[in-house]
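We now fix the convention by which a protein and its fold are recorded. The integers have meaning only within a learned vocabulary of local backbone shapes. A complete example follows; check for yourself that the lines match position by position.
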Amino acid sequence: MTVTHTWSYEETELAWLRAALAPSDDRPGHVVAELVPGGFAAYLRIFHRFETADGSGRTRRWRDLAQESGALFHGELSHHRLLGADGPDGRPLWQPVDGEPDAGSRQALVRALAGTTGGRPVFFGYDLALLVRGADGPAVRSSPPDRPESVRADMTDSHAYLVGPEFWWPQDRSWVVTSDYDLVSGYIGCSAEPAERILAEPGIEALPVTLRTRVDFSSDQLNRPSEM
């Protein structure tokens, strides 16, 4: 007998957030409003670093690869438009990290958002990344605002190869960070002041976007298609 589980947000800290997200519509692709609630003064795209495929741990920024490829660096840039991602053997030399920003970018986000929580806990939500691994339901953990890595370590200990968290938000819901498990960039909704700090933070590669900015891999309409 096959046992099925209903994926439910009821009585979880994720319920308010999922209810605030826009549903997919009939327009092509997907947009920021499906990932981050409306009502914030500013929205930013947080680019996940490219990592080399040779295991050396080297990373590259999107802006640098875009410059080398002759591509415009903008809020809907797709990694498929970056011609500099091919190695000499035809396999990708540089690959964007999907599901979560690198550790340095995560710590830079913690620094940029410091002071916005008043010392209150921050919630970390794991959603679809758990669903595809057969979990019974989403999970939400909380920690002091400066300790997200401890939550991440505990979750990855319990679920091998789990990426995330997919959502972060403070107790007063004054900002939301999301890193969809299947995307190569994260997005944040917040007020103007933390947005300015994030844009000025050297450890983060970010650009302003809107709720209607596309987030899917076919989003880029400003650069010509690559020849890959």
Remarks:
- The chain has a mean pLDDT of 85.
